[in-house]
Design brief:
Elements (H helix, E strand, L loop, with lengths): L16 E3 L2 E3 L1 H9 L4 E11 L3 E10 L7 H11 L8 E4 L13 H8 L4
Parallel strand pairs: 4-5
Antiparallel strand pairs: 1-2, 3-4
Length: 117
């Protein structure tokens, strides 16, 4: 909150995704995805795109017994988010890479997407 009482939502600047000149904050999309039944953990990150600069990608860990596909998640996003915020791809994974302190390592996800690891 600033001195005039305005509240700002803050995300890590290095995590911001630039899609065709639009700034996309992963936290906004992650908060939406956490609201979908069956989703336990979420990471949204940017990957290079030859036409848009970057595109949005998501990785989700589901609760045991949840039956949701990445394609279903994308359809829900298209219905509820701006087109430029909708992930181009959503991967359902068993676990997300984390640091020793439990922080999700989006850097590792970006490297995996680029085929570097």
């Amino acid at each position: 909150m600033d001195s005039e009482g305005y509240v700002y939502i803050v995300d890590r600047v290095k995590d911001m995704i630039n899609v065709s000149g639009f700034k996309v904050w992963p936290a906004e999309i992650e908060n939406y995805l956490y609201g979908i039944s069956g989703v336990r953990e979420v990471a949204v990150y940017g990957v290079p795109d030859p036409h848009k600069g970057e595109s949005v990608r998501g990785a989700l860990v589901l609760n045991d017994g949840a039956d949701v596909t990445g394609d279903q998640i994308i359809v829900w996003c298209k219905e509820n988010l701006a087109a430029y915020k909708t992930p181009a791809r959503v991967d359902i994974v068993k676990e997300l890479p984390k640091s020793a302190t439990g922080k999700i390592l989006k850097r590792v996800l970006r490297e995996q997407a680029a085929g570097k690891s």
